[in-house]
């Protein structure tokens, strides 16, 4: 049975780095889905498909998203190509949202494998400071939000991402396969 891996974690936890590394793996069974986001393509974040609000709304009305949600003043969608890949026997990783895990579970049931990236507060603070996108106040807010949404092992598999990217890839593959 094909799996959809719903990868979650706070901003700065290393989701984009892990997804980038997974795209380079020679596992012909695993695909990483691109998200459709109402954010500029050159925003310095994940590799995504940028859509205007109008484009997003049109695609949503046409039923072209398997899942869609709103967070952080942006709209996010995962295309229905996801269902085609799953029907073809492929496993798919999605950069998911902790707040929309229930929506993904409702649609994909037992095929859904929720994984929560966890990083210690010190590592998360260092990563947020290093990337330089947030003010000190915004970093503190992100740290508080991360603590509030700490992963719950009853809801998801927990992948510690304090170490190297190579260690995280190996841990991810062990959880999924």
From TrEMBL:
Recorded GO MF terms: ATP binding; ribose 1,5-bisphosphate phosphokinase activity
Domain of life: Bacteria
Chain residues that bind ATP: 9-16
Record-annotated Guanylate kinase/L-type calcium channel beta subunit domain positions: 1-177
Pathway given in the UniProt record: Metabolic intermediate biosynthesis; 5-phospho-alpha-D-ribose 1-diphosphate biosynthesis; 5-phospho-alpha-D-ribose 1-diphosphate from D-ribose 5-phosphate (route II): step 3/3
Record-listed E.C. numbers: 2.7.4.23
Record key words, sorted: ATP-binding, Kinase, Nucleotide-binding, Transferase
InterPro entries referenced in this protein's UniProt entry, alphabetically: GK/Ca_channel_bsu, P-loop_NTPase, PhnN
GO biological process: 5-phosphoribose 1-diphosphate biosynthetic process; organic phosphonate metabolic process
Catalytic activity line of the entry: alpha-D-ribose 1,5-bisphosphate + ATP = 5-phospho-alpha-D-ribose 1-diphosphate + ADP
Claim: Chaperone is one of the keywords in the record: no
Pfam family, one: AAA_18
UniProt function note: Catalyzes the phosphorylation of ribose 1,5-bisphosphate to 5-phospho-D-ribosyl alpha-1-diphosphate (PRPP).
Matching PANTHER family: GUANYLATE KINASE-RELATED (PTHR23117), RIBOSE 1,5-BISPHOSPHATE PHOSPHOKINASE PHNN (PTHR23117:SF8)
UniProt similarity note: Belongs to the ribose 1,5-bisphosphokinase family.
Name assigned to this protein: Ribose 1,5-bisphosphate phosphokinase PhnN
Species this chain originates from: Buttiauxella izardii
Gene behind the chain: phnN
